[in-house]
Design goal:
Elements (H helix, E strand, L loop, with lengths): L18 E7 L4 H11 L7 E7 L4 E7 L2 H4 L3 H6 L4 E7 L14 E5 L2 E11 L2 H10 L10 H10 L5 H9 L4 E8 L4 E5 L8 E5 L2 E5 L3 H4 L4 E5 L5 E5 L2 E5 L12 E2 L1 H6 L5 E2 L2 E2 H15 L6 E4 L5 H11 L7 E3 L12 H6 L1 H4 E3 L1 H4 L3 E6 L6 H12 L4 E6 L21 H4 L2 H8 L3 E4 L2 H7 L11 E2 L1 H4 L23 E3 L1
Parallel strand pairs: 3-24, 14-23, 17-20, 20-21, 21-22
Antiparallel strand pairs: 1-4, 1-10, 2-3, 2-4, 5-6, 6-7, 7-8, 8-12, 9-10, 9-11, 12-13, 15-16, 18-19
Helix pairs in contact: 5-6, 9-10, 9-17
Amino acid sequence: MNEVMTAQSEGDDRFHDECGVFGIFGHIDSAAHTALGLHALQHRGQEAAGIVSYNGEQFYTHRALGLVGDNFNREELIKGLKGTQAIGHVRYSTSGETLLRNVQPLFAELNFGGLSVAHNGNLTNAYSLRRNLISRGYLFQSTSDTEVIVHLMAISQKASIPDKLVDALKQVEGAYSLLVMTEDMVIAARDPLGVRPLAIAMLDGAYIVASESCAFDIIGAKFLRDIEPGEIVVIDKNGLTTMRPFDSQGRASSRFCVFEYIYFARPDSLIGGQNVYEGRKRIGAVLAEESAVEADLVVPVPDSGVPAAIGYAAASGIPFELGIIRNHYVGRTFIEPTQNVRNLGVKLKHNANIESIRGKRVILVDDSIVRGTTSKKIVQMMRDAGAAEVHMRIASPPTTNPCFYGVDTPSRKHLLAANHNVQEMADLIQVDSLAFISLDGLYRAMGKEKRADVPQFCDACFTGDYPIALTDKNNDVLASPKRTSRLAEI
């Protein structure tokens, strides 16, 4: 089977979104609401999507590679996902290959009944745990680190399902926002440092859990609160109860991923009490204060650079212009990906607004620089459009380290900032000047005085300060036959 390739390589020059989860308990339209919620979370993963539902007798699932809208677009399919409880997942793989057997939610038939799991994050000790389980004769049906949690729950000697989950989670290290569904409950859990987001809402008396609040807005649910770091929320017929099993372990304070505010989360989401869009504008304002330059226009690199550019323009007094127009309808192409086509690829997605650019001194604002290949092409696009000067301002500190907590990032040897200083980077992408927001400036924009000795966020991609142990790499692959269960694929 031939690989379907994009005709541009920009995807390799971005931090790829992680995954998104959505769950609902006690609503007659559980599958339909889950599908809509996954639509709202599509930015968190575009490789695959899946839903598992339960109607009191049978689990139902539909999982597929591709976008939510391409796979959950038929009324009969949604009606086939029967029941008043469901969980769903959109995936960008950070552990495991892009195969249907890795598409979540995962499902297993255990001694206490059916179990479905959806996970956003990455377990840093999954490989060693998996290897140990395999040596003891346990069979894995996927290459996803999430399946380790399923097996650990299966062998737990604890009596209740929530306690089995706690038992499993106390053996894993890493970042996770997790949904677990059984025959009579949905459980939501966040790792003790709260690296990945997870929130809870209500609709028509039903509880809903999702990675971001934008998933609640699409179905008219009322946002209640974020699930706290280390908190486990159990939702069943009796309502909602919470557990805090990690409090006694002396865990550090929250280390929420600061890159959620910079890039990953949707701008209209509310996370940690902050509106993401307003946070990004504040980042742009601080960036303008720290790295002022004389110019005629502030131009965002769409779409992720737009809020920061608005903040930069407002703080600097320099006019904001959409000097780059994005084509929102670029999909996959079967064009043979020759080097010439790859070089043209950025123009499939972005095109200069020449009349706005010609003869102007331009400040380009983007969220980050990873490899630098796309930045170089966009700078050249500005030159070709007649820009007199091109300055680049970046709404994050230099990215010098890969992420191991659920974000797909290049190794250090491929990160531009890990191998070059700022002036060298400016020369490589051919800008007149280049500046990044400082680490303390980023913290100020997030409402903190500065980065403290015990930082309030995970900023390892900028500092190399990893708050969770990096035990091993999740690179084991083991195939096993399918088992007969009460899971109906539709």
